[in-house]
Design goal:
Structural class: alpha/beta
Mean pLDDT: 96
Shape: elongated
Radius of gyration: 22 Å
Number of helices: 7
Bound molecules: S-adenosyl-L-homocysteine
Number of strands: 10
Helix content: 25-40%
Strand content: 15-25%
Largest sheet: 5 strands, parallel
Order of helices and strands: EHEEEHEHEEHEHEEHH
């Protein structure tokens, strides 16, 4: 069954956004995934469509109301995991992306303003997911980035399915350097070994390079890689 995203947002028009282009766009038109938006404003209690209010206890910004978001969830949630994009959340990893790609339906709440009333997150056992240690203006951007990572793992989305296996993070190593024609560019040559046609040597060279780059840039990942080899 094709994966379905149900997105709770006050900006439904942002979707599918860049997901409508390129590989993800093609997969969308082929029905390999689908997306439905729920406009949280439709569940407001006043005619202005207000969804937020000032924080209890004072402080800057506005907070999304539990009752309004609760009404939106009550009317639309039919089952499956509910995520909320949040800088407080569990940092998104390729492993989590794989896990999400196995689901049938994922609901995602996109925050805006200062945050969301904690009670609705508790009541619906919402899982908080962060896309990194920096702060965006809204959850829509974060959700689209997460969806992009999930969609490219769905069956038949990437032409060459082998291409995900050697990618950064798939085996705790960053990817080796890539080259294409011309063989010489402004005095810089493609490494000789890649032109040798010797598959084993090429594989060894790429592995060596991947380890070197990971050691330099992400010693934390290299440690995971070495630990995984030890068992
Ligand atoms: N006051 C909040 C930040 C609000 S940013 C705090 O300090 O945690 C507004 C919205 O943008 C958030 O509700 C969330 O949905 C989204 N957002 C911002 N940064 C994000 C990140 N790193 N990952 C995921 N979502 C993020």
């Amino acid at each position: 069954m094709a994966l379905k995203f149900k997105v709770y947002t006050i900006f439904p028009e942002i979707f599918p956004g860049f997901l409508g282009y390129s590989l993800t766009g093609k997969a969308l038109s082929e029905g390999k995934w689908s997306l439905e938006t729920v406009n949280i404003r439709d569940y407001a209690l006043d005619k202005h469509g207000s969804v937020d209010d000032t924080p209890c206890g004072g402080g800057a910004g506005m907070v999304m109301r539990a009752d309004i978001l609760g009404r939106a969830l009550e009317a639309n949630h039919k089952g499956g995991r509910i995520l909320v994009m949040s800088p407080r959340g569990k940092p998104l990893t390729q492993q989590m992306v794989h896990e999400f790609s196995q689901e049938e339906e994922i609901s995602v709440i996109c925050g805006r303003f200062e945050g969301i009333d904690e009670r609705v997150l508790e009541a619906y056992q919402v899982e908080e997911v962060s896309i990194g240690d920096y702060v965006l203006t809204g959850g829509e951007q974060a959700a689209q980035i997460m969806f992009d990572a999930i969609i490219r793992l769905l069956p038949g989305v990437l032409g060459n399915t082998l291409s995900t296996e050697s990618e950064s993070f798939e085996n705790c190593l960053l990817e080796y350097p890539q080259y294409t024609r011309p063989i010489e560019w402004e005095g810089r040559k493609v490494p000789e070994v890649l032109l040798s046609g010797h598959h084993k040597k090429i594989e060894d060279w790429r592995k060596e390079q991947a380890i070197k780059i990971t050691r330099e840039r992400r010693p934390d990942l290299l440690k995971k890689y070495l630990d995984s080899k030890r068992v």
